[in-house]
Amino acid sequence: MNILDTLIWLVNFPASRGYVMVFIAGFSLLGLFAMSASRSTPGVSLRRIREREGLLHRDDATRGQVWGTVRRIVFRILAVIMLGNLVIGILSLTGVPVTRAYIHEHGQPTTGTVDGDWVTFTTSSGVEYTIESNFFTPAVYPDRDTYLPSGEPVVVRYLPDHPQAFVIDSSQGPR
CA nearest 142: which of 87, 91, 109, 96? Predict the structure, then answer.
């Protein structure tokens, strides 16, 4: 298994769903950044009052602080991941081939068919895949604006280890 193919496969998920990723990441970022703030830990106000009044034992205070720190770090990591998904989604919507060029260059070609927003192809191992190629971020490379009639055969290039990462080759006819 190739590490770079796996990374491209992971990045291809938000790139192939650009419109959806922009909305999901856009709306979730504010909440994730709010949850990663130090004041967002549940019970922090009560814990501070108990510390000030001397009602909180040292062991309880440390345990609460550690859990709050771990929680903030997890939400900060999730916020950075969603920010990356937002950037990838915007780039994909504007026509930048974030992952398509790599898949086109290193992908294994096969013949498939287009039926509306769905592409059906069979891999060299004999497994048939039907995957969405939506209107806003079509999986077509190098010419993104190529007209693909439904039912006609097309050349599909996919990563052998991750067939879900594919592009329709607009520079070639069917093989």
Answer: 96
User: Which residue intervals of the chain are DSSP H helices?
Assistant: 3-16, 18-35, 44-53, 58-93, 100-106
Cα(157)–Cα(160) distance, integer angstroms: 9
80-90 CB burial, b ≥16 within 10 A, e <16: eebeebbebbb
Helix (H) or strand (E) run with residue 131 in it: strand 128-132
Q: How many CB atoms lie within 10 A of CB 168?
A: 23
24 is written with which tokens? 């999901």
**Predicted confidence pLDDT, tens digits, the chain (175 residues):** 789 999 999 999 999 999 999 999 999 999 999 888 866 666 667 777 877 888 777 665 566 677 778 888 999 999 999 999 999 999 999 989 999 999 999 999 999 999 988 999 999 999 999 999 988 889 999 888 888 888 889 999 999 999 999 999 998 754 4
Cis peptide before 142 (omega within 30 of 0): yes
Q: Which of 161, 168, 118 is nearest to 140 (CA)?
A: 168
